[in-house]
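Lecture 7 notes: from sequence to structure.

We start with a single chain of 332 residues. Read the sequence below before looking at the structure.
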Amino acid sequence: MTKTITVFRGDGIGPEITDAVLDILKAANAPLDFEIFDVGAAVYEKTGSFIPQEGFDSFEKNKVLLKSPITTPIGSGFKSLNVTLRQKYDLWANIRPALSNPALPTRFENVDLVTFRENTEDLYIGEEIEIDADTVHAIKKITRKASERIIKEAFEYALKNGRHKVTCIHKANILKKSDGMFLRIFEEIAKSYPQIEADSMIVDAACMNLVMHPERFDVLVMPNLYGDILSDLTSGLIGGLGLLPSCNRGDSYAMYEAVHGSAPDIAGQNLANPSALLLSACMMLDDLHEEESASKIRNALDQVFQEGKVLTKDLGGQASTSEFVAEIKSRL
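Now the structure, written as C-alpha cells:
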C-alpha cells in the first residue's frame, strides 16, 4: 500500500539534497507518494512565514514528514523552527543512530551507538528572564512525564533490537533537583528491564569516554541539551553530520531529517552530500514497515562507499551530488 508523506525541501542545500533523496526513493520503488513544500528563508521573504500553512496541514494529515535543513536567523528573535515543530507536534523522542562504515576514513572503528534525546523541554523551552541589564536567567524544565517516556523508549529499543546496555547521561552532581530527578527515574525504570545492563555517567565524563572508548557505549539516553551536543559528537566518530540520520517521533507524528546545517556556502553548486537525509529516509521506511526498500537503499549506499570511486568532497572524493546519486541508483 502506498503511503503519502509530507516533504519540506528546506533552504541552502536543502532543495538539492531533498530532490536527490526523492530521486533515489523513486528509483528504489519505495511505495511512497510525496506532498512537497518549499520552506525556509526564501519563503519567509515572500510570505512572512518560514513554513506555509499548507505545509502544516499536509503534515497533520499525513503524520510523516521528511525535512531538509531550514535556516533559522541567529540572535534575531526567531525561535528555532526545529524546536517549534518538535513542540507543536510533541515529537518527544529524538533518535540518532551513529554507525561507522569501515569503508570511510575515520579515527574509530566499530562505532555502533544510538542516542535517545528528550526533545520537548530542558533549556529548549526557550524561557529566559532578564533580571537586569547585566543578568539573564534561563529556565531548565524537567518533568517526570517527559523523562519517563524517553527513558522507557530507550529501554524498549534496546530490548527489541538486541542491544545490551543503556547509559543515562546527566549532571546530577550539580543539578541535583532537575537532572537528579531524571537520573532517579532512570534507575526506577531500569529495574523493569533486568536483562538490559543499565549504568549512568556525568555528561563531561561521557564526552571524554566517547572520544576515547566509543565501543563501551550502546544506547544512550539523556535530557534535551546534552542530547543535542552528544549526538553531534557521535557524528564526529563516524565521519561527521553528513552521515548521521535522525528521527523525531511522538505518539501521533514523526519527522525525519538531516541534522546538519543548510550550508549556504555550497548551495546551488551540486556539491552537497545527501547521505544523512537519505539514511533518515531509510529510518522512515523502517518505521513504515517498508524494511525491504530501506535495506535496498542502505546496501546500495554501502556499495558506493566501499567502491570509493564516486564520493562527494566531504567524503574524500571529487564527485558532484548528481554523480553520487547516479552511482547509488546504479547499485539498487
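The chain has eleven helices and twelve strands. Keep this in mind for problem set 3.
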